[in-house]
Design brief:
CATH superfamily of the largest domain in chain A: P-loop containing nucleotide triphosphate hydrolases
Helix content of chain A: 25-40%
Largest sheet of chain A: 6 strands, mixed
Shape of chain A: elongated
Strand content of chain B: under 5%
Number of strands of chain A: 13
Number of domains of chain B: 1
CATH class of the largest domain in chain A: Alpha Beta
Distance between the termini of chain A: 24 Å
Shape of chain B: elongated
Order of helices and strands of chain B: HHHHHHHHHHHHH
CATH architecture of the largest domain in chain A: 3-Layer(aba) Sandwich
Number of domains of chain A: 2
Structural class of chain B: mainly alpha
Number of strands of chain B: 0
Helix content of chain B: over 70%
CATH topology of the largest domain in chain A: Rossmann fold
Structural class of chain A: alpha/beta
Order of helices and strands of chain A: EEEHEEHHHEHEHEEHEHEEHEH
Radius of gyration of chain A: 24 Å
Radius of gyration of chain B: 20 Å
Strand order of the largest sheet of chain A: 5-6-7-3-8-9
Number of helices of chain B: 13
Number of helices of chain A: 10
Oligomer: heterodimer
Strand content of chain A: 25-35%
Chain lengths: 296, 276
């Protein structure tokens, strides 16, 4: 289990992370979400001992990263897609890490095979695409067969096929009982991968729950169109629906279900040409949570 | 620590930088050594024995060969210094310092491993640079009928000291790199110090009558004093190596001390800083 405990990090006058607390559980994929610059990377770097927190800390099963012996064999991390020497081959990049994790060279080839880079092992990373660099980062994280994985924006630079591959890999790793924390600024890209969501904005927690609970915050809207747009406008006004008018005279109504609208139209003798419930999508919920300050 | 040193070796030898830099040093030294061996031997042969007897002792007999051989250390010490500095600054430049500190969060161990692994790298540079200087010059001296001094024990002692000199420059570079972190800054500082600031400072006592003893403690002076012979003494550029009052063993400690000093400064000032 990863525990972030009252973590605060200030860079001069800027508070990047502000008293942040959350947990990531074993056997689950936790999505760590927030807009760009909301403090996700700072939190991950503080967890890994790369930056010193102003206050609070992050522990892995009760231990700080720096206290873990051979940390690469317990915690795997991929932070940015560009932390490679362009003149070094993928295999040599991994071979430089392997001794500290107490691993033989054969394991380096093994993880390259897992991420589908085995045939590119002896190519210099300078010639790699963004997607291949992302895969190499994941290979480095997997090197020590760790029980905890921290991946910063793992879907960045991946094509749709790569995103699907990443989802299957992470689901399989979580099913083996590993703790996985992945950050993203796009809920859509990790929606199908994560079990739990932690949403932050401006370094503060705004929401933490299983994904299903987030879905309940979704507010459906109803699309309605009538044969007589003028009469529909009158009805919307009379019923005081919270509605957005479209140029063609149709409306998108918030907060009233399709049944209620149909009933009111029937009573008013109005002929409806369209009546449909529209799901706003989780992305809308995510935007709502991260735009409004302090919304919970 | 052993694992960290193994990691550092793998990093050093898995990019092309180490041998490209070494090739530059070797080509430069081969050219300079051929030129100097030929022109010095040629000039001496034009001079009558009586006139030669009044010339400085450093160019007489076997001393001449030694003087030319010393070009390796006097001119190419900047190369092990650079490879040491670059072994650190490359990590910041390409952000590989992140995986390095993830694999070994005890940063003092990483710095120690970089210092230790740089010593053999400096030695390899020393072997190649010496060979690139000695072989062409020895051939020129032999062909022109002069002395190549390779049969003298003094010459071989000089080789051993020159190798020690090269080995110690690489850790000094590690210290400079750790302190500055920026690749451009490290290269600029190394070149400005070794090619400009220190040569000028070392010239001052020979041009004036100021008795600047502290100059012996500058890294370049200490390096030349380890060798015991410096090519610069021929050019009148601060005869500190010949006149050095420090025994070569102490000079080795002084040069090693610079590496330790830079690292000791770097650790709290830059090495412990956030990696973001």
């Amino acid at each position: 289990m990863i525990e972030v405990r009252s973590l605060t990090k200030r860079f001069g006058p800027v508070t990047a992370v502000d008293n942040l607390s959350f947990q990531a559980q074993e056997g689950r994929v936790t999505g760590f979400l927030g807009p760009n610059g909301s403090g996700k990377t700072t939190t991950l770097r503080a967890a890994l001992g790369l930056i010193r927190p102003t206050a609070g800390d992050v522990v892995f099963d009760g231990q700080h990263y720096g206290e873990i012996k051979r940390p690469a064999s317990v915690i795997g991390a991929a932070l940015e897609a560009s932390s490679f020497h362009p003149g070094r081959t993928a295999l040599d990049h991994l071979r430089a890490i392997a001794p500290e994790a107490g691993l033989p060279d054969s394991r380096c080839l093994e993880v390259l095979d897992i991420v589908g880079l085995a045939s590119q092992a002896d190519r210099r990373v300078g010639g790699y695409s963004m997607g291949m660099r992302g895969r190499l980062g994941v290979a480095a994280a997997l090197l020590g067969d760790p029980s905890v994985l921290l991946l910063d924006e793992p879907t960045n630079g991946l094509d749709p096929e790569g995103i699907t591959w990443m989802r299957q890999l992470l689901r399989a790793l979580a099913a083996q009982g590993r703790t996985i924390l992945i950050s993203s600024h796009l809920l859509r890209e990790v929606e199908a991968t994560v079990d739990d969501v932690v949403i932050i904005t401006r370094g503060r927690l705004v929401h933490a729950s299983p994904l299903e609970e987030l879905e309940r915050l979704e507010q459906p809207a109803t699309f309605v169109a009538a044969a007589d747009p003028v009469a529909l406008a009158a009805l919307v006004k009379a019923q005081r629906w919270e509605a957005q008018a479209n140029p063609d005279g149709s409306y998108l109504v918030q907060g009233t279900e399709a049944g209620g609208i149909g009933h009111a139209a029937f009573l008013a003798g109005l002929e409806l040409t369209q009546l449909a419930t529209q799901r706003a999508g989780l992305e809308q919920v995510f935007f709502r949570l991260t735009e409004g300050d302090g919304l919970k | 620590m052993r694992a960290a040193i193994k990691s550092e070796f793998r990093k050093l030898f898995s990019t092309r930088m180490w041998w490209i830099l070494m090739l530059c040093a070797a080509a430069y030294l081969m050219f300079m050594s051929l030129m100097m061996a030929f022109s010095l031997e040629f000039s001496i042969q034009q001079v009558s024995p009586e006139d030669l007897a009044t010339a400085p002792s450093m160019i007489q007999g076997d001393r001449l060969a030694l003087l030319v051989y010393s070009m390796a250390g006097s001119m190419a010490y900047v190369f092990p210094l650079l490879i040491g500095a670059l072994s650190v600054t490359q990590e910041y430049r390409h952000k590989t310092i992140t995986p390095t500190f993830l694999a070994e969060p005890r940063r003092v161990v990483v710095l120690g491993a970089k210092l230790i692994s740089s010593l053999p790298m400096g030695l390899v540079y020393g072997l190649v640079c010496l060979a690139a200087t000695v072989l062409p010059a020895a051939i020129v001296f032999t062909v022109m009928g002069g002395s190549n001094a390779l049969d003298k024990a003094d010459t071989w002692e000089f080789f051993a000291r020159a190798l020690l000199d090269f080995s110690l420059w690489a850790p000094v570079g590690v210290g400079v790199g750790a302190l500055l972190r920026s690749q451009v800054a490290a290269i600029v500082v190394v070149l400005a110090e070794t090619q400009f600031a220190e040569p000028i400072l070392r010239m001052v006592p020979s041009l004036t009558n100021w008795d600047w003893k502290w100059i012996e403690f500058l890294p370049g002076s200490a390096g030349d004093a380890i060798q015991g012979v410096s090519f610069y003494s021929l050019m009148g550029l601060g005869d500190s190596s010949a006149a050095s009052t420090l025994p070569w063993g102490w000079s080795a400690l002084v040069l090693g001390g610079w590496a330790v000093l830079f690292c000791a400064l770097a650790y709290p000032l830059s090495w412990k800083r956030d990696i973001s």
